[in-house]
Each structure stands twice: as C-alpha cells, then as structure tokens.
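From: lab user (bench 3)
To: helpdesk
Subject: output format question, protein + pyridoxal-5'-phosphate

Hello, I'm new to running complex predictions and I'm not sure whether the block I got back is the full result or only part of it. Here's what I submitted:
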Amino acid sequence: MPSLIYLDYAASTPLDPEVEAVMLPYLRAPGNPSSIHAAGRALRTAMEEARTTIAELLRADPGQIIFTSGGTEADNHALRGAVETQKLTHILYNPTEHHAVTHTVEALAREGKVQAHPIPIDRLGRIQLEALEELLKKYPRSLVAVMYANNEIGTLQPVEEIAALCQRWEALYLCDTVQVMGLGWVRVDQWPVDFVTASAHKFYGPKGVGFLYRRKPIRSLLTGGSQEREQRAGTENVAGIVGMAFALKKAYEQRTSYEAHLRQLKAYLLRRLQERFPQAILHGDTRPEGSHPGILNFRLPPSMADDMLVLHLDLVGVCVSGTSACASGSGHPSHVLQALGLSPEEAQRALRFSWGKYTEPHHLDTALQALQQALSLPT
Ligand code: PLP
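Helpdesk reply: Thanks, we reran it on our side. This is the complete output you should expect:
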C-alpha cells in the first residue's frame, strides 16, 4: 500500500511511539486498580501519578480531574452533571460546538430539564460577547458552553472574556478544550472556568481515554461502582490513562516548538493554496492570532468542485476531512459551516486540512497537487 498523506490530525493524532512504550507494561499487567492487593495497588499508584501529572500541568488539584472514555463522555458528564447537581435550568451554548455538546444540550432540552439558548456568533464563528452578556442578564446562573477552538474551522473563542462574564453573572462555564489541550494552552488558574474537557487521541495519546476537569464535584454520569471518588463508575483504563498523562506532559514540555511548527505549516499551506487555487474561499477565522495553528477549512467554487473531493483525495492516499470525523458518514452538511451562513450545498464542498508534528511541507504540496489532479487541473 502506498504511504498515506495524513492530514486529519483534528480527527485523531497518530499515537506517539514513546507513549505506546509507556503504556505497554500496563496493558499486560494483571489487576484492577480498585483491588486492595499488590497487583491492584500498583495500578492505582500509576493512575494516581498520572492524575497528579495532569493536574500539575493544568494547575488544578488532582481531585478535580476525572478520567473518562474521551472528550464526548467528558462533555456529556459536565453538562448533565452541572444541570443535575446545581439545578440549572438554562444553557447558553455556542451553536458551533462539537456534537458532543450540541446533541447533549438538545437532549437535555427535549427531556424538559433545561431551556437551551444559542449564543449569536459572527461570520467567522466568534461568540458575540455583548449578545452573551444580554443572555446572561436575562438568564443569570446559567450553564455556558463555549469551546476554545473549533474542530472544523479552527476559530478561537475569547475564552478569558467569556469566563469573566460568567463569573460576573454567576454562571458556570464549560470550555471544551479538546482541540487545544495538546498545544499546552490550558491553565485553569488563569481564567475562572468551571469545566474543561480533553481527549488523549488529540495529543498523540491513545483513543478512548480523556478527562474532565471540574472545579467542584458533580453527579456521576454513570451508575455502578464508586470509582473516581464516586463521580465516574467503571474500571479505569489504566494503560490509556498512563499514556495520556505521558503524552500531555510531553505536549506541555514541547509546546513552544510544536506551536511554531504548526504555525509555519499553516502559513505555508495558506500561501500554496492561494497560489494554486486563488478561487478558494476560506472558512472561519484564519488569522494567526484568531485560529488554531493546525486547522484550515476552505471550499472551491461549484464550477470547480463537487462534494466528492474527500473521496477523490482518499483514492490517491490523501486523508483529509469534509467535516468533523463524527459527522462525516452521516451525510449531513456541517452544522458549523451552516451556522456561519453557508448553504448546505456550500457546506458539502468544504475541505478541512489539519496537520501535526509528523507533517512536513511536502505533504501539504502533495495534497494540493492531488487536489489539482482530482479537479483535472494542470499541476
Ligand atoms: N470536542 C471536540 C472539540 C472534538 O474535536 C472532539 C473530537 O473530535 C470531541 C469533543 C469528542 O472527543 P472524543 O473523540 O474523544 O469522544
């Protein structure tokens, strides 16, 4: 099989071989971290060390970190836990959140537990702070859900201002930080956030493990055993947790060079895209200061492209996304792009390139060349 050009890091990053090596002994080890014998205690010790590592990186207390099966569970847990524990009746949410948030908010509204209010956004997908404040005046003590970086278009939100507004109006703030955790940007002592969510497979850790930071205890999403201080029933994924903590520590240690690498690639891709496809229309905020350094989303005009481009690129070994991994395959045009004002037909033509630490400029060139070939343009 020819080697793949992988440009879908926002969907999932490859596992770092060093992380894999750290995990292996724990995959093989016998025992359950809740057992009191030596085998169980060894796993519990490793797990608690991982919790402390993550807490120190985020400047949180270890007891504020709850291990989950990933970002989706962490978002569900924060939303449902906050609503039930704090008896909240209104959720103000960013309409371009990941479905882990929007579908949970919609479900809570359908169940009659909350009223859900979308927060107005601008053309680039940024929350309108004045509109948020108006909503907060009307519905103080709400739960506010606004992510740090959008997974489809990369737009960053003014999270510190949002957190300050939430504090002023006694609202709780859930910030989905899944896409930025690996950039080493998250420190919960710097902005008054109540919930932060993360997923290891977005920062070169394994799939199927993540965590929720919560300032104050909330109800468990699952019923069962008393693991995670009775806040998340179920035997923990010890190997995944150990790998996640190692991956996050590495990410924080290398954050400056990693961010610089991503930024260089973004500037390069933007330049090459505009040279080869001057007709390309960019989606979301693409300014270096306003967007994720590893994500770019764009579309080509209907005269050039159809909605099958992702498949054409796949056939020649180039992996990119048309929408988020979770929505692709559903056949639905992206809710994020439609929230920016794109028609369903325009949204179907979008391409998301996302890159990471193993990406080099020539990978981007090869992908753009493949795009030209797919469109029968001279390369
Ligand atoms: N939130 C955001 C912003 C994401 O990008 C993703 C995954 O793409 C998730 C939540 C869900 O994370 P997981 O795949 O670990 O369930």
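A quick orientation on your result: Residues 70-72, 75, 98, 100, 147, 151, 176, 178-179, 199, 210, 324-325 surround pyridoxal-5'-phosphate (CB under 6 Å). Let us know if anything else is unclear.
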